[in-house]
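tokens incoming
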């Protein structure tokens, strides 16, 4: 398959499913997961902060990290890649589904509606005691940890951590959409974290086409129909606007 084939396949597809990872937010200035951590955090691996054990050991440290990331995403703006996916959703009417591994909320801010956030969302917190989910206060008014408005318990970041299960309904909806898709797009993900990375195979196994957009080769590349070695925004523009 070449770019012209990929473009026609996307244009003609009645059902499109999309998986995004940290790479689509790189152009909004948000570092990807596997980029070196910055500054103070350079000595931590994400796995050492994004886990139930880390939170049990040192909740203040884990909250400090997430509060910094929350401030960063609230200061960032969706980029052309997020905007093009919101436009693709409108073009495909009902035949569109977006699953993101990102917790930055930028897809929703760009106008994507048929969206599941497989790994949670940085802008909300969940009560350790009663599981109530609540928006975080605006960054300027926020001092972690947040306190549950319902029961007064301590709240944790509303993120799926290493070793935890993904939200079942969101994963099922994504799995159904990828199985039914004529074309799936896999954008800005290293394809190393399952079950999200496995969604591409749901489409391939049923004879659909899977197109990757990523400047670098990934674990998934050898199995996919076509790979566009571009950033998310340029790759989507090439596929949609050609
Ligand atoms: P990674 O950091 O693993 O991978 C980011 C991918 O984006 C890499 O393949 C880069 O080549 C690519 N990339 C970089 N810049 C790009 C650009 N401008 N346009 C397109 N692609 C670009 O991030 P994820 O694959 O999202 O999970 O990581 C998956 C999960 O691992 C995360 O959701 C997180 C982490 O553990 C949890 O927190 C549960």
């Amino acid at each position: 398959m070449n770019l012209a084939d990929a473009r026609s396949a996307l244009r003609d597809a009645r059902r499109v499913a999309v998986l995004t990872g940290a790479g689509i937010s790189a152009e909004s200035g948000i570092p990807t997961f596997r980029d070196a951590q910055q500054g103070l955090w350079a000595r931590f691996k994400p796995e050492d902060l994004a886990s139930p054990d880390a939170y049990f050991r040192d909740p203040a440290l884990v909250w400090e990290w997430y509060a910094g990331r929350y401030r960063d995403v609230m200061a960032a703006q969706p980029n052309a890649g997020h905007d093009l996916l919101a436009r693709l959703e409108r073009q495909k009417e009902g035949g569109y589904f977006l699953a993101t591994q990102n917790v930055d909320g930028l897809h929703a801010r760009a106008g994507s509606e048929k969206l599941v956030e497989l790994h949670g969302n940085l802008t909300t917190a969940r009560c350790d005691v009663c599981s109530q989910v609540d928006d975080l206060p605006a960054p300027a008014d926020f001092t972690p940890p947040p306190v549950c408005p319902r029961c007064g318990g301590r709240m944790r970041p509303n993120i799926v951590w290493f070793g935890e299960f993904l939200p079942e309904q969101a994963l099922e909806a994504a799995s159904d959409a990828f199985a039914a898709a004529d074309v799936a797009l896999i954008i800005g993900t290293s394809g190393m974290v399952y079950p999200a990375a496995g969604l591409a195979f749901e489409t391939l196994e049923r004879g659909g086409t899977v197109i990757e957009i990523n400047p670098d080769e990934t674990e998934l590349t050898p199995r996919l129909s076509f790979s566009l070695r571009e950033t998310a925004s340029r790759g989507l523009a090439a596929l949609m606007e050609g």
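note: The radius of gyration is 18 Å.
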